[in-house]
Specification:
The strands form 7 sheets. The chain has a 7-stranded mixed sheet with strand order 1-4-2-5-10-8-9. The radius of gyration is 25 Å and the shape is elongated. It is built from 10 helices and 26 strands. By secondary structure, it is α/β, with parallel strands linked by helices.
Length: 452
């Protein structure tokens, strides 16, 4: 068993070797009344803690700030999150004391420090997933003082700063709020004061200790890794709510907070990924790999140069060294793989007219449309209403009768569902097909057609 684990660790190291650090993204949540506290909520400093970063992701999507100001960083270490690694280059949460400037994550640490030291930030809430269940006294290997799961943490009782320097009082509000929603009695949260300056040399290298030594009130909240994802995320959302309540930020949640609802939101089938504005993919039930998938030329040299848009804030593209395939990642989950066809992208085509089941409609490039039995794509016209001869449409999985061209053009061609080859559908249910547009040799965008 030990040999197997060592082999798995070695494989993981080889896969991660050569992975470049990815800049984290910062989100300021709009507020109806900005007169109030300014706080920073962070997670994902360790990439193998999905409860934490799924919670911040849902918080960004489904909460409204009524009073106060909230900044959120859902994943401080996206590269570690994509590889489900505690730290591709070591533990990022142990690099806040002395760090060699040659460390691959040196710039990442400097940017995190800048966020913490921002003059507007008055308090920091930092989220983790920890092992077992913390208890002040030893019960067994799962419940005891060496475990970190299901506890709220401060480095000391207080710091001499106003208004949130009473760390103990604030964290007790967080704990009480979290415990008000316990699913089982043994999930109970406890206060853990690490007394970092006196007792814990490892914690002296951590984010929260760096914060309090710079007069920034900081708090940590842990959910147990033993729990399923929906429950870890649930407890983290309770923790966030307790923290906001403690510092006086007013908010509104737009769903019923239960593990079951949390699971549905995490696995929401409406989540999509838009790449460089002109092509969009659903996240769930997609076949893998998608072959000859258009990607911008810039991605060949720098995958992170590709513009990604989604309502989810923990999506991204990842590529293992020496691999041609590009992974679409949702946190630590690989949702699909793309076998790229690198092309010049042309964004001049904004929309195209379709007849969908004989009903004319204008379809925006990069969108998904639904059809029952058929569709037809009208040839685009230029400003003088003449046919744009530089444009062509290619319906992947359709062959026009008698057309043997290597570059088919399927404008003004009626396409029936029954004429499409199911093996070219992009989804496991064989309902969604790619319609690709080209301007001369450049890729001009994609529309997905989903049949009922």
């Amino acid at each position: 068993m030990r040999i197997f684990l060592l082999l798995m660790l070695a494989l993981k190291f080889m896969l991660c070797a050569g992975v470049m650090p990815i800049d984290f993204k910062v989100y300021d949540m709009p507020s109806e009344d900005s007169q109030g506290p300014n706080v920073l909520i962070m997670s994902g400093i360790q990439g193998d803690e999905p409860g934490a970063y799924n919670a911040t992701n849902l918080f960004l999507q489904y909460y409204t700030i009524k009073k106060g100001n909230v900044r959120v960083i859902p994943s401080l270490s996206p590269h570690s999150m994509f590889y489900n690694s505690r730290g591709v280059y070591g533990d990022l949460n142990r690099k806040f004391a002395n760090l060699d400037s040659n460390d691959p994550e040196f710039e990442v640490i400097q940017k995190i420090k800048e966020q913490i030291l921002d003059s507007k930030v008055q308090a920091i809430f930092h989220m983790h997933d920890g092992s077992g269940f913390y208890r002040p006294k030893y019960i067994n290997e799962t419940f005891g003082p060496k475990r970190w799961g299901n506890c709220s943490i401060i480095d000391q009782d207080s710091i001499d700063v106003s208004p949130f320097g009473d760390l103990k009082n604030i964290i007790e509000v967080v704990i009480n709020h979290t415990n008000s929603g316990l699913l089982k009695p043994f999930h109970k949260y406890h206060l853990r004061n690490t007394e970092t300056a006196k007792k814990d040399t490892q914690m002296q290298k951590s984010l929260t200790f760096f914060a309090i030594t710079h007069n920034k009130p900081a708090f940590a909240h842990e959910a147990s890794k033993t729990l399923p994802l929906r429950e870890k995320t649930y407890y983290h959302l309770l923790g966030i709510e307790g923290f906001l309540k403690a510092v006086g930020i007013e908010f509104e949640r737009h769903f019923e907070l239960t593990p079951q609802v949390v699971a549905k939101l995490i696995n929401d089938p409406s989540i999509t990924l838009t790449i460089d504005e002109i092509l969009t993919l659903p996240l769930f039930s997609i076949k893998s790999p998608l072959n000859f998938f258009p990607m911008p030329l810039s991605a060949k040299q720098n995958l992170q140069s590709v513009n990604i848009e989604s309502k989810s804030k923990i999506l991204g593209l990842s590529q293992a060294p020496q691999s041609a395939l590009i992974d679409v990642k949702y946190g630590n989950r690989t949702m699909m793989r793309l076998n790229p066809l690198y092309l010049e992208f042309d964004k001049s085509l904004q929309s195209v007219e379709f007849d969908i089941d004989d009903v004319r409609q204008e379809v925006k490039i990069g969108s998904l449309v639904k059809a029952k039995t058929s569709f037809l794509i009208h040839t685009p016209r230029d400003e003088t209403k003449n046919t744009d001869s530089n444009m062509r449409a290619n319906v992947i999985g359709f062959v026009k009768k008698g057309d043997t061209s290597p570059a088919p053009n399927e404008f003004d061609t009626l396409v029936h569902k029954k004429a499409l080859f199911k093996k070219f559908a992009i989804d496991t249910n064989a309902r969604i097909y790619r319609v690709e547009f080209y301007k001369n040799d450049a890729f001009a965008g994609m529309v997905l057609v989903e049949f009922e």
